[in-house]
């Protein structure tokens, strides 16, 4: 049996293996050595995905309860070198492709409000939804602006609701007695 010789082939990637971050548009390159075993922030073998800084933010927005703290406190917390170091330690422990040099913390803070191309996921380790994060963000903004109000208890809410209904009813009742056409109808 004639042994068929395997012909050597070129591997293929998109033009130059280059692409841009799907969130902030930063130029990116495909991993020249695909097959990464990283558990967190793994290099992409295909020309798509996020730049290192957006990938860090993507990880942070899924990292409960850090995501809630960041939503309330704002991204400035990430400017602290010891916070950055703790995050890098966490990444290293999990196994990651990203290096400290690749993460631009200022870009993460600057681009904080840019939308992500994918929705936030809820899973066992991340019980919060995108809506809850949005609420926490708003609460944080209002606290910093000094306009935040403690949410009402159920009793307070019910009392306010009843008061609003009564006011609405009294207003209608008063209107009814002041409206001559309503009076006439009453007399019919
Ligand atoms: Zn990016």
Describe this structure in words.
With 188 residues, the protein is mainly α. The protein folds into two domains: 131 residues, no CATH class; 34 residues. It contains seven helices and two strands. Strands 1-2 form a two-stranded antiparallel ribbon. The longest helix has 25 residues. The site of zinc ion has 8 residues, from helix 1. Zinc ion binds next to helix 1.
How would you sum up the global shape?
Answer: elongated
Q: Quick one: how many beta strands?
A: 2
Arithmetic mean of pLDDT: 85
The percentage of residues in β strands lies in: under 5%
The H-and-E topology, N to C, reads as EEHHHHHHH
The helix tally amounts to: 7
Q: Give a quick account of the main beta sheet: strands, pairing sense, barrel closure.
A: 2 strands, antiparallel
Gyration radius (Cα, Å) is 28 Å
Secondary-structure class: mainly alpha
Spatial ordering of strands, largest sheet = 1-2
**Span from first to last CA?**
110 Å
Helix content: 40-55%
Helix and strand topology:
Layout: E1 18-20, E2 27-29, H1 52-61, H2 66-73, H3 81-94, H4 105-110, H5 130-145, H6 154-178, H7 180-187
Antiparallel strand pairs: 1-2
Helix pairs in contact: 2-5
The structure holds zinc ion.
Residues 21, 23-24, 26, 50-51, 53-54 line the site of zinc ion.
Descriptive tags:
188 residues, mainly alpha, two-stranded antiparallel ribbon, 2 strands, binds zinc ion
How would you concisely characterize the structure shown here?
By secondary structure, this protein is mainly alpha-helical.
């Amino acid at each position: 049996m004639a042994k068929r010789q395997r012909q050597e082939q070129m591997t293929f990637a998109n033009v130059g293996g280059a692409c841009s971050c799907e969130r902030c548009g930063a130029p990116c390159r495909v991993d020249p050595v695909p097959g990464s075993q990283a558990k967190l922030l793994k290099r992409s073998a295909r020309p798509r995905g996020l730049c290192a800084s957006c990938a860090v933010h993507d990880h942070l927005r899924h990292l409960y309860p850090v995501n809630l703290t960041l939503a309330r406190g704002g991204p400035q917390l990430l400017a602290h070198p010891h916070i950055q170091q703790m995050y890098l330690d966490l990444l290293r422990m999990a196994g990651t492709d990203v290096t400290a040099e690749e993460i631009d913390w200022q870009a993460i803070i600057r681009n904080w409000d840019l939308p992500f191309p994918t929705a936030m996921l809820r899973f066992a380790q991340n019980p919060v939804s995108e809506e809850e994060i949005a609420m926490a963000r708003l609460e944080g903004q209002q606290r910093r602006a000094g306009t935040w109000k403690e949410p009402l208890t159920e009793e307070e809410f019910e009392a306010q609701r009843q008061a609003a209904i009564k006011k609405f009813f009294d207003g209608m009742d008063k209107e009814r007695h002041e409206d001559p056409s309503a009076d006439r109808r009453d007399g019919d």
